[in-house]
From TrEMBL:
Species of provenance: Thalassospira lohafexi
UniProt-recorded Gene Ontology molecular function terms: catalytic activity; FAD binding
PANTHER family registered for this protein in UniProt: BLL6224 PROTEIN (PTHR43716:SF2), D-2-HYDROXYGLUTARATE DEHYDROGENASE, MITOCHONDRIAL (PTHR43716)
Descriptive protein name: Hydroxyacid dehydrogenase
Cofactor dependency: FAD
Keywords attached to this entry: FAD, Flavoprotein
One of the GO BP terms on file: respiratory electron transport chain
Highest taxon of source: Bacteria
Family affiliation: Belongs to the FAD-binding oxidoreductase/transferase type 4 family.
Flavoprotein among keywords: yes
Keyword Flavoprotein: yes
Taxon lineage: Bacteria, Pseudomonadati, Pseudomonadota, Alphaproteobacteria, Rhodospirillales
């Protein structure tokens, strides 16, 4: 029997030509599976359009046949946002990967949505400019996915989230029409901010096809230090001191518990312990400056001297070479991978006001230990943004499956504490399918009503990425 789906597939194949689609098993297997393995898609066709026009026509075909479309970037998201259900069409932007302009006068880059984040960073650097969005998946995530999830990462404290780094967007709407908002304007108060609606919408309102991004002067100097701090409170005092004394040169400020640090240096190859001493809490601090005359090594040395004197730091080391700096970052960025060597882990990507981070950590760790005796808390993250990856590794003597069966119970315990502190259950990774019910649980009735009204207004037939976010 012919389904509407089959008729649409024929039209889509004709539209996009042989390079523009695949129904091959191994291609579909790769794109239907999210890396963490928590979500499995069922699409039997994936589209690879090469232009905005092709995206628009493909969306129009799907709309005419009442078929849902799931946009996909680098598929590095962790929330089940880019996986498609049965009879849905997966649309990956990877062939739309051009950087169409770097404008050194406007300090902008205009790019197609499928451009890999690292490629954009490199292209900016060739012009002695910086695109500051930086995250562990930057070698494979696409800028369209970064914008659709309002990605955060390592430099948010200085430059903001993906949302703060965009001037304009081009978006294909659920009926196949194209909204051209590809502006370079830094000021535009002419009505509702449509651009901001599509950023963070996780592909539920439109398919981002192009973006105009903000660029910055490329740093001329970088100074990086690893610091042993007595407590999360001390880390926050150190952050405040650093902000006051370095002229806001802080580009990154990461907190890690001792367990997270130990796992990284124990399980991952070729990493060197930064400090001989043991400590329960570590901070990675990085200063950058684009002023040729700045001496950041001295600035950071003075800061750490003051921190030691004020008992905000117990020990510290400054990276003296690029290799040493890379070692420090590899310890921090390797934590999620290293956690895998210690069994199952239950994860939370949450944020609270920066000053509430110590409260969150104390209460969260105590509540988790009450719920699951022997659990090993592994909090780390972008403390300067109040964003903690509040992960918990299984007890040593517990079966992995038995431990992971506690996922929802532990989520509820941690999310309740987060909500009580005025925080968010999703700091940077998004909602997708993973946290859709949690969003419905924690959002106010007014917020939910508005979210659903926006979705209904822009995508009344629920054709774009249904079942995600709201
Ligand atoms: C090792 C590692 C480290 C990470 N670190 C961070 C981090 O520090 N900060 C952070 O925020 N995230 C982080 N992530 C998560 C992930 O990389 C980001 O969410 C990233 O922005 C997703 O981009 P992507 O291209 O892979 O999107 P995908 O995973 O393909 O898609 C994510 C969502 O965006 C939608 N989407 C994708 N492209 C488009 C488009 N063109 N138009 C409309 N919707 C679209 C999809 O439908 C889906 O809902 C990390 C992931 C990994 C694997």
């Amino acid at each position: 029997m012919t389904r509407p789906h089959d008729a649409a597939i024929l039209e889509l194949k004709n539209l996009l030509g042989p390079k523009g689609w695949s129904m091959e098993r191994d291609v579909l297997e790769t794109h239907n599976r999210e890396a963490r393995g928590k979500f499995e898609g069922h699409a039997d066709i994936i589209l690879f359009p090469a232009s905005t026009d092709e995206v628009a026509k493909a969306v129009a075909i799907c709309a005419a046949h009442a078929i849902a479309i799931v946009p996909q970037g680098g598929n590095t998201g962790r929330c089940g946002g880019a996986v498609a259900g049965q009879d849905q069409v997966l649309l990956n932007l990877k062939r739309m990967n051009r950087i169409t302009e770097i404008d050194a006068r406007d300090f902008t880059a205009t790019v197609e949505a499928g451009a890999i984040l690292k490629t954009i960073q490199d292209a900016a650097e060739e012009h002695d400019l910086l695109f500051p969005l930086s995250l562990g998946a930057e070698g494979s995530c696409q800028i369209g996915g970064n914008l659709a999830t309002n990605a955060g990462g390592l430099n948010v404290i200085r430059y903001g989230n993906a949302r703060d780094l965009v001037l304009g967007l081009e978006v294909v709407l659920p009926d196949g029409s194209i909204w051209n908002g590809l502006s370079k304007l830094r000021k535009d108060n002419s009505g509702y901010d449509l651009r901001d609606l599509f950023i963070g919408a996780e592909g539920t309102l439109g398919i981002i096809t192009k973006a105009t991004l903000k660029l910055f002067p490329h740093p001329k100097h970088i100074a990086t230090a690893w610091v042993a701090v007595p407590s999360p409170e001390a880390a926050l005092d150190l952050l405040a001191l650093a902000r006051r004394t370095t002229g806001d040169a802080i580009a990154a400020f990461e907190l890690m518990c001792g367990f997270a640090h130990d796992m990284s240096v124990t399980h991952l190859p070729n990493l060197t312990r930064p400090l001989a001493s043991q400590t329960d809490w570590h901070v990675l601090i990085e200063l950058t400056s684009s002023r040729p005359t700045d001496d950041l090594q001295s600035l950071l040395t003075d800061l750490l001297g003051d921190a030691m004197e004020g008992e905000l730091a117990r020990d510290a080391t400054l990276a003296q070479s690029d290799a040493q700096r890379k070692n420090l970052w590899a310890i921090r960025e390797g934590i999620p991978e290293a956690q895998g060597f210690e069994g199952g882990s239950i994860k939370h990507d949450v944020s609270v006001p920066v000053s509430k981070v110590p409260d969150l950590l104390t209460r969260g760790m105590a509540a988790a230990r009450d719920l699951i005796p022997g659990i090993r808390p592994c909090p780390f993250g972008h403390v300067g943004d109040g964003n903690i990856h509040f992960n918990f590794t299984q007890p040593l003597d517990m079966d992995k499956a038995d431990y992971l069966a506690h996922w929802e119970n532990l989520n509820r315990v941690i999310h309740d504490i987060v909500a009580g502190l005025g925080g968010s259950i999703s700091a940077e990774h998004g909602i997708g399918q993973l946290k859709r019910d949690e969003l419905a649980h924690y959002a106010s009735a007014e917020k939910l009503k508005l979210l659903r009204a926006v979705k209904a207004a822009i995508d009344p037939d629920n054709r774009l990425n249904p079942g995600k976010v709201v």
